[in-house]
Write a structure and sequence with these properties.
homotetramer, alpha+beta, Urate Oxidase, 2 domains, eight-stranded antiparallel sheet, two-stranded antiparallel sheet, 5 helices, 10 strands, globular
Chain lengths: 281, 281, 281, 281
Amino acid sequence: MGIRLGKNSYGKSCVRLLRVGRQEARHDIKELTLEIRFEGDFETAHTTGDNRKILPTDTMKNTVYVLARQHPFEPSEDFSRRLIQHFLAHNPQVQRVEIDAAEDLWARIPCGGSPHASAFTRAGEEKRTAMLDATRDGIAIRAGIENLIVLKTTKSAFQGFLRDRYTTLKEDQNRILSTSIQADWLYDGSAIEFNRVWDGVRRTLLETFAEHDSLSLQHTLYAMGEAVLHSFEPIREIHLSLPNKHYNLVNLSTFETDNPSEVFLPTDEPHGLIEATVERD
Amino acid sequence: MGIRLGKNSYGKSCVRLLRVGRQEARHDIKELTLEIRFEGDFETAHTTGDNRKILPTDTMKNTVYVLARQHPFEPSEDFSRRLIQHFLAHNPQVQRVEIDAAEDLWARIPCGGSPHASAFTRAGEEKRTAMLDATRDGIAIRAGIENLIVLKTTKSAFQGFLRDRYTTLKEDQNRILSTSIQADWLYDGSAIEFNRVWDGVRRTLLETFAEHDSLSLQHTLYAMGEAVLHSFEPIREIHLSLPNKHYNLVNLSTFETDNPSEVFLPTDEPHGLIEATVERD
Amino acid sequence: MGIRLGKNSYGKSCVRLLRVGRQEARHDIKELTLEIRFEGDFETAHTTGDNRKILPTDTMKNTVYVLARQHPFEPSEDFSRRLIQHFLAHNPQVQRVEIDAAEDLWARIPCGGSPHASAFTRAGEEKRTAMLDATRDGIAIRAGIENLIVLKTTKSAFQGFLRDRYTTLKEDQNRILSTSIQADWLYDGSAIEFNRVWDGVRRTLLETFAEHDSLSLQHTLYAMGEAVLHSFEPIREIHLSLPNKHYNLVNLSTFETDNPSEVFLPTDEPHGLIEATVERD
Amino acid sequence: MGIRLGKNSYGKSCVRLLRVGRQEARHDIKELTLEIRFEGDFETAHTTGDNRKILPTDTMKNTVYVLARQHPFEPSEDFSRRLIQHFLAHNPQVQRVEIDAAEDLWARIPCGGSPHASAFTRAGEEKRTAMLDATRDGIAIRAGIENLIVLKTTKSAFQGFLRDRYTTLKEDQNRILSTSIQADWLYDGSAIEFNRVWDGVRRTLLETFAEHDSLSLQHTLYAMGEAVLHSFEPIREIHLSLPNKHYNLVNLSTFETDNPSEVFLPTDEPHGLIEATVERD
């Protein structure tokens, strides 16, 4: 019985860049971190150390910087697609290129009431993501959000669940619900207005989280996914990964003190994790 | 020559809590992480293992939760001071109590154009801090900001610096300037409106960073400190610690491509670090 | 066109425990962090908020602690399998259970030349992992290593690679090679001596990395995978994910100083990433 | 009342380097991360943006690499001292130079029973540190250890402590004791064998932690400090900062299961923190 190479890829991670657009009256900035991966005809590179088909990952990095200067950089989905086209056009040994792009979000500093033309502050821990997966036969484009942390203080219950002999959790009619939204969605079709849709999905996710009468985090996840699919035609499916960031009511009865849903202990460990795809039929 | 105990302290770190204020029409939340340290008569605890004067750190934690329920929780400076008063009043063996409080900032989710009454999103990586240091003779109160990340694309130069034989850095008339603001300031007097002043200091730091004609990060640091002291009478001194988060212009000349201050490489390592206190005479 | 629930799961992450085995003359410890995921009949939980088939993630956590007391805890693969059997036996609504276990490694503190019976030091950043994926029809067991950082100062070249107009990387006959080994392998058969094999795979990976005449990281990855498959019959395939942690030779020629492969700059960003599965035919 | 510059400094952080020593039969490596800070005559740099006395932090970095090539790199204390001498000799505007050095520890990979000549594995999360603080009048040298994680399963009690109305902690005759040792000590005199003493201090800290009959973490901290001062004449004082990494016994009585000190829940938040200096009279 022999041994052989199975599925394999190589690429460059953490390629960071800031692109400054300098108009007369206003500067725009965009900060991205890219990950690029190639699949292709790389068997002898592994088995015999033949590097003739290996474009160095250092070259991938250089290519990012050159193309970021020569081509529009906005939105990330278009820039990433152009990178992919470049790599596929010049590298016959490559069969598939994947690019993940994560954008750090910046907001203009308010100065004397109006947004500053050239000074910015980081808008949060949240990232806007794009994930492209392309062969010479086609391309799949996903966009997403990572690390959008939310919390609500009412309209969240968890009751009527299955109990076994190891169940001690109490029914809760009005618990704190908090999560860090990680979402990504698959686009259908080609003439997408990526920036407009992304803003809309983000707003829909936040509003649905806020307004939903939650019976569980699964229930709210589904409502969020459904609302996105209802509102945005070019999205075929959305995947949500939602940690249940528990805020436990502190029991103060030992100290002859009541605690009517006021003082909570935030915890990171352990945490629930709810994941699902909501899709069109 | 003998051996003895020198300066020592003990306490509890990472005491986390969320406090929910439930008014009819609106909920308010505040999330804090506290660190509590005691200094006092603890020599025999170290040298002979005599624990009779050691209030357990677990008790410090319980005390935080009970007092958070019984007393106003806003602002952090007042709540921390009340904790200190409690510990000093009940623990004659304690000579000094220090409390550091770090607040995670939450903003209301906008829903249909107006801020939601009970749903929130994390406002960023930034933290509002308070540091209290008290003995039975007095208390020093500092407030601060951590991790407020900013960047400007113009009005920043670094020129005319000292050169030696290991200097290769080029003069730069118009570089990117970026830092993560860590500031803390000492209050003078007792009737401070902590929330109002904090908001004002934050705004002043941001506006000064944005507007300053920077000749170096030292130069901008001083301008930021000076602006705060000019505007806020109850602040005696302010300490600023500013990493110089370098964004290096990528050299594309090898690829016959120019780069007129458009494509930059963000780096975390190594980084400059500028620290100074600006104080009243 | 309707909207429906696609693939979904829920579970508990970061369930941490330390198990102490107390023999007369010697204590043994094992520290694990578990992640548990269920797939099954959870559609109405999402669509209508019906929790009757939802065993709380809090119960999953309790079950871990009870079973860790009642059953042997060593090796992780057996303990995780027992957890899975418990969950499948008592939860007809569950179709699949996945468990990931990550072990923090502890070594005995050497005291007067011999290993201490009950005092330990953390053996490194490295983790031993196990990943079980089970339905009522069968179980797949993978074991692995994460974060095993290695470096070699010779027998590593990278030459003869593909060049395009954006390639500036120099051929290197003798570079530093460093990576953080992440490996996981699939077991075949049922009577595996998990501890013995894991120790053997780890040793084989380290020795192959050390001894291999590397023409690229792909080349070394394949050699490592091949060596493992040669030596360990019960392993059907091994997946390796190896970041190329670049150590760049510092150019000192500007300072009239040579640098014959002596002073290097370690960098984390950007980094190469090489991934492949090596498998039996 | 005017405003003025108070205490200030500037420098370079996260200057990383690997130094390879290439003997015929054996390579040695040493990986350091340095932080350099200057204090001096920098008032006008802050107040007027006059950079004529500012040696760029980029030059500090270059200097590290050049001197690492030209001079012995071992031990860190000597290399750091040489850097300081260089900076003080060439920069009359500088009054004080501080250097912190943190060493990542590497061990040789065992191959066929013996340590490999040129292949290494990271020895753990632990770092060896050195902190030098120098003016033209003298130098203070501290060495230290960070992140040396230890745990013992017996010979640790915490009893007889102070109780107030918020105390719920139970007396514990035999708890798990775990901490992450952070130690630094001040040297006295000039002809120190830095490597030999560091190895000895590390061994003494570990053995004392393992063997001590602990009545509290304070008690063990003092024993560790005392043991170091007893054994190492050139150390004038040692500072220890020890988080109390709690491992809580899981209460299984709800499930009709006993737990005789076998199953514990490791927690990071909150944690105790014990700090003290042990010094010569």
